[in-house]
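Researcher: Structure prediction, please.
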Amino acid sequence: MTSTAILHGSEFRKQWTCGEVFVFLRFVPKLSQAVKQGIDGPLPAALLSPAICRAGYFQFAGDQSFTNGCVQSRGLFWCKSGRGRFIVNGETYELEPHDLYVLTWNRKITYIPDSKDPMFTGHVHLIPDYREGSDWIPDVPHEKAEIAFDSPDRSDAYWPGFEEVVRFKIKADEPIGLLLDYTIRRYLESHGSDELEGRHLADLLVNELYRLRSRRFGSPHSYPEELVRMIAHVEKGFHLAPTVADLAGTIDRSRSHVLKLFNSHMGISPKSYIIDKQLQEARELLISTTLSIAEIGQAVGLHDPYHFSKRFRKHVGISPSKYRQNHGPFSSRPTASAHQPAGERVQSER
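Model: Predicted structure follows.
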């Protein structure tokens, strides 16, 4: 193929191979960033080459606590169900469903699951800069004695806003959740052997993390105070199946006033909003837990299993069981994963 490029006012023509086109297209955005920011000093994250080097699911047992002495990755630590806590470099962090933590480089971390409801987690290890052209090792050192520790081919990067441990709340069926699940599954299937895939997925995850951060610190939508209060009431108590009358009671106004607020500012009825929240949570539970269909209906405030399944099919387009089959990471209750000492870890672990 023939391509024409302009560089500093001069024109050159060149025959490009497919590989050269790929490298050029990947380099151009980074080059433009370098022109804007200057080359002096540490390279910004946009100019580096992130890569996924390890990923997996881990079901903790209630009495299963262990420590990794020095993990060289930016860890994405996702609690899909259960509870617990962990300690990073002396700081304790609580862990509950929907938590996604972005962890720091060179961390000492201790995992402490809840004894009655131990966490089931997803882990993705991201190297902010893995030098292209170096030997590809799809693993991450968790101790100083392990392979690739302090490798000159791997390094951390400056991610503005992620200098410390950062916590997000995410849903399994939103883009970041789907991308994390896909990344973990692909790693487990390929054992990380596909370097190009590991780099592409890392680029996507970094972009999604900054999108999450932007959303978290962006300006909230400006709703009337009464509507904000009713939304908060639904968010907190959708599992109690609140009615329009219940919402009216929270702001001491009429049912017609509630209907007008929802329709004017959100474009839907309060009943539809409540159902949306119930089914959103149902989708999350179908993906991230092994609760039965009836138990999930109970948990979201739809107590009749037939009514729950019928409503789910009407709004989502498929049955709850089919949705779980298509999207869930497992079809049966996971057993506790085996933690092995350094150098003996298996791919499905941390």
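Model: The longest strand covers residues 51-59.
Researcher: Thanks, that helps.
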